[in-house]
Amino acid sequence: MQSLIQVVNKLQDVFAVVGEQQIADLPQIVVVGTQSSGKSSVLESIVGKSFLPRGTGIVTRAPLVIQMIRYTEETKRSMLMSHNIEDNESITEWAEFLHKPNNFFFDFDSVRNEIESRTNILAGNNKGITNSQILLKIHTNRYDLTFVDLPGITKVPVGDQPDDIDEQIQKLIMSYVNKANSIILAVVTANTDPSTSESLQIAKKIDPDGVRTIAVVTKLDLIDEGTLQDTKDLLCGRRIPVKLGIIGVVNRSQKDIVENKSMDATLTSETEFLKTNYPDICTKHGNKALARTLQMILITHIKKVYPKLKVELEDMKNKLGRKLLLLHTPENKVSFVIGLLKDISKSYEDTVNGNQNDVSVDEIIGGASVARIIQQKYLKTINAIDPLQDLTNENIATVLLNTSGTNQSTFVNEKALQKILSRQLKNLVEPSLDCVELVRSEMLNILNSIDDRLLETLRRYPQLNEDVRNVFEKLLEENVKNIKDFIASYIESYQECLDTANPDFILEIVKSSSTIQEEILAAANINNYKDDSDSSSDGNWKDMTQHKKVELNRIQMLNQLLTGLNNNDDSLESSEQVKLHRDLSQCYFEYIRKIVRDFVPKRIKHKMINSFLKVLDKRLNEEIFQTYLIEKKIDEVLLEDESFQKDRKDLDIKLDTVMKALKNMIDIQYL
Q1: What is this structure's pTM?
Q2: What is the pLDDT of residues 469-509, one digit of tens each?
Q3: Euclidean distance between the first and final Cα of the chain, in Å?
Q4: CA–CA separation, 36 vs 59, rounded Å?
Q5: Closest Cα partner for 665 from 355, 172, 228, 308?
Q6: Where does the Dynamin-type G domain lie (predicted)?
Q7: Between 452-460 and 333-353, two packed helices, what is the crossing angle to 10 degrees?
């Protein structure tokens, strides 16, 4: 029976083969450290082989997935036989790369060369980095363990490295440590302040409680003797708040590397160093202790996240299956087109009427967006129009004179009032017609808010998509022309035909401001000139001077009543007649504005929206499906966009990958 770690290795293989490592959040150990932290030496000590590229600057430029697989004698014999290799006791480890299947490496210097070669292929030769993984399997007689070696953190570009190399590395590291199922292996040097450690800062940012972070303290042999107690405090967890443990190790020195000191000899030297300097905690530290701890942590973590990971993969399988179903090739193309057109019509109607299944919580769509146009744009605009816009008293006086011709105007000059109102009511036309255009545009836009499944299908067939949109545009254009003509004619009827005796108009005067009411009443009463003859009970009629005064008053009153002009005023512009026509114009405009702002939205809904929905299904059928049949174009219009052919292939691969992963996960529940 395979170990838990080997099963997860299989999952990594499955996703890596198709380049989809980011599909699933697999449990894994992610190694994070600066370039000079001794990260490579730690990994080589765990593996027991010197195999990683070395040098100045960034050496690890691609995520390197290292799978340590503990082989059995049977596995080893099978490998040797399949490659016609004689059984040799000196072969205790061998390696293979996922990108070179069945090509085994027994010389680990060759492994190093292959890593460098593959890195250059993936990341180029200019010291840049790549997100593409290199997956290395190391078959060993030690233990099962898997970890991901990431590029070392750096701040300063070297040589031909990009100026933003530090940002690129940070982004790459974050893409791994951000995953909830990743264990962070933070490499820290003993001879620097841990509070300034880049790896610990990243770990603290992503995992503030330290529940999935383990720290490795390197270079214990390089610290001053006077700081041993500080280092002991560090190793005992008194300075770094991580929950999975802190383990100190001694790396191979550059001298050891040059002299090709063996890993076993290095581990022996490390053990002696720890016993001498940290006798009471020496068994908890060192590379052997690190390997055991990492293995235990990874196994525990795999068991913990397995149920959730399985659910996520099942969900992924279902989602990919649904997406793939949408991209299936229809068997009966005629039925497919008929059904699609009916579904589009139904989905559009549901979206307009607010009956869609998936109600958006992020934006206003469908009929609600049309209602918003009417409420927030049209009514707001039309209510803001000044009834006396660009109309002065002088303008009114001029109209009064021009409509009187050679005769002086009567007091209420309906001809003048009609001309004034025709001019002012014209201001209601443009906003009303603009509202029609805005609604037309929004109704076209609503097509992009119908069921995503239908939109995806339309995008899949470019010609069909274009034809459907053409029918929408054509049908809306027909409605728009008719409704615009009707609205313009409707407002024009009020411009040309006044009805000042209408009770609603009289009511509008009553509801107007007190100032307007007083001016109209004052004008109607001819300034309320008082006839002194009514109160002359004291014999003043005998006084000829007083009699003459009364006579003059009456003549003046009659003159105003008959001519409509206030001769007492200095100018016509300030006369009572001008004020009267101004106030009547304002009240009549308000009266008509209420009618128009009530009529236009109703007309749009009735003749533009409802009428459109009633004939949409019929028009789609007549102008698309029937045309396709007559012209025998069904096969032609169902030619897929090339991108969808690629998408279907990709979905097939991803679905197959997830299915294989789920099959492999079955083994975990029995371990």
Answers
A1: 0.58
A2: 999 999 988 888 889 999 999 988 888 888 777 777 767 77
A3: 8
A4: 11
A5: 308
A6: 23-307
A7: 140
